[in-house]
Fold this protein.
Amino acid sequence: MHSEQEIIAGCQQQKPAFQEKLYQLYSRKMMAVCMRYTRSRFEAEDIFHEAFVRVFANIRTYNGGSFEGWLRRIFVNTAINHYHKNRKYQDHLDYSLVEESSPAEDDIVSQISSQELLALINQLPEGYRLVFNLYVVEGFTHREIADMLQIAEGTSKSQLAKAKNYLKDLLHKYSISEKC
């Protein structure tokens, strides 16, 4: 068994056996990342393959730190780029028309299982889902999200609040939690 550093070094030397090991090591986690940003497995697989191509093309630029974090950033950026390229073909929210709203008082995310949450997140409108994933799941700041999605920072905050409210309404609708 090779260490992560040995696998990375092998990939930097473009050795196919090490590329396969890297793929095996991270494919499940990175496919899960792709699935959070799409509505279909087909679309997620497109992003997944494109991101791995980018990883192998750019692995020489990796210079230490959390490799999984570096890898995840490539997958998230690929998903965001995919969103921007395909936005004209999708039903989407016009960010310029979004009103500001204050965040919800209670954190309903902590009250449900991860499987329930993922199922509900997939029901969110595209703009809400992107901001929710980037902020809550990936841990980006509203400033970073605003830069990635080319929206105002306040819009990111508003989208997050509305996503949480939307999720709360879905919870009521499906009676997943009595506490909401």
In short: The chain has two domains: 4-89, 95-174. The CA atoms of residues 34 and 46 lie 9 Å apart. Helices lie at 4-12, 16-36, 41-58, 67-86, 114-121, 126-137, 142-149, 153-174. The mean pLDDT is 81.
